[in-house]
Amino acid sequence: MAIRRSKITVVGAGFTGATTAFMLAQKELGDVVLIDIPQLENPTKGKALDMLEASPVQGFDSQIIGSSNYEDAKDSDIVIITAGIARKPGMSRDDLVNTNAGIVRSVCENIKTYCPHAYVIILSNPVDAMTYTAFESLGFPKNRVIGQSGVLDTARYCTFIAQELNVSIEDVQGVVLGGHGDDMVPLVRYTSVGGVPIEKLIPQERIDAIVARTRVGGGEIVNLLGNGSAYYAPAASIVQMTEAILKDKKRILPVIAYLEGEYGYQELFMGVLAVLGGDGIEKIIEIDLTDEERSALDKSAESVRNVIQVVTA
Ligand SMILES: NC(=O)C1=CN([C@@H]2O[C@H](COP(=O)(O)OP(=O)(O)OC[C@H]3O[C@@H](n4cnc5c(N)ncnc54)[C@H](O)[C@@H]3O)[C@@H](O)[C@H]2O)C=CC1
Ligand SMILES: O=C([O-])CC(=O)C(=O)O
């Protein structure tokens, strides 16, 4: 059998979806199908064609098509869900829960039919609860249903640390666990620059300020944009996760995973460190936490559980 290119479907052709599709093609991770609602079929086709017409200039061979028909998504290896509404200034991600749960459920019905073997990555907010919703609707094994939050939250955290120290971002290592909300848990004790713990490089009050800014990093962008939320860094985060799966890289990344006893949590989707490779979430890595870190994670888990209760009620 001839080797074929991977096929990646991105559902939702708005800011995050379109940016993700373009980055995936630029990196030649596969052929890309961009899907939106029938009322937006022409703009979706237009965006895809515009991206494709960049290929001669940028030298990528990935195909990109726009569609509102899931037949075009048939047998995708990866499906990325960005469909849904985004928040505006003054709103929390949780305010989106009812609208986006309906959208995610209807998208998942199509994924189930047309892409039964896909690895599914969820971006739509509130993303921990939307990953739970997708898992329930799809009925896929837990290793194939993965939410995106920690890669982005960690990226923001590392950006602020590199800025603070005026050093290369390449030398900053950190991790943010927990739900994708204002009580997420940046783990200072597991953060280093060039192998040196940040507590030895940055005064405590500046570390506290960086942690606080990270927790509201999404809101900072929402307030600056005025009408929508972040999309460049979210798209880059999704692309990193997609690449980890398609290239079986076995990256250790913070992802939203289904917890069945890990860290003592049951039947909960939340951000934890995991090995992400050719079989999706291949392993969850449990790290030891101090009492303080543990109670911060418990608080975040409680917030996530409250939103999940809305979608399971
Ligand atoms: N988890 C994370 O880290 C992040 C999550 N988000 C979330 O991602 C979602 C999308 O954000 P944006 O792309 O900025 O919003 P957007 O409004 O630019 O795009 C959303 C797109 O979804 C489409 N859509 C709605 N219902 C659909 C359906 N049933 N089928 C297919 N497409 C449908 C809309 O027509 C629209 O084009 C939001 O919920 C946002 O909060 C955004 C950034 C980061
Ligand atoms: O803040 C938002 O609404 C979008 C998002 O999840 C992020 O950028 O972290």
From TrEMBL:
It comes from the Bacteria. Gene3D superfamilies: Lactate dehydrogenase/glycoside hydrolase, family 4, C-terminal, NAD(P)-binding Rossmann-like Domain. GO terms for biological process: lactate metabolic process; tricarboxylic acid cycle. Substrate binds at R87, R93, N125, R156. NAD(+) binds at G12, A13, G14, F15, T16, G17, D36, N100, L123, S124, N125. It catalyses: (S)-malate + NAD(+) = oxaloacetate + NADH + H(+); (S)-lactate + NAD(+) = pyruvate + NADH + H(+). The active site is at H180 (proton acceptor). Residues 7-147 form the Lactate/malate dehydrogenase N-terminal domain. Keywords: NAD, Oxidoreductase, Tricarboxylic acid cycle. Signal peptide: none annotated. InterPro entries: L-lactate/malate_DH (IPR001557), Lactate/malate_DH_C (IPR022383), Lactate/malate_DH_N (IPR001236), Lactate_DH/Glyco_Ohase_4_C (IPR015955), Malate_DH_type3 (IPR011275), NAD(P)-bd_dom_sf (IPR036291). Its EC number is 1.1.1.37. NCBIfam families: MalateDH_bact, PRK06223.1. PANTHER family: L-2-HYDROXYCARBOXYLATE DEHYDROGENASE (NAD(P)(+)), L-LACTATE DEHYDROGENASE. HAMAP family: Malate_dehydrog_3. Catalyzes the reversible oxidation of malate to oxaloacetate. Belongs to the LDH/MDH superfamily. MDH type 3 family. Belongs to the LDH/MDH superfamily. LDH family. This is Malate dehydrogenase. It comes from Paenibacillus aquistagni.
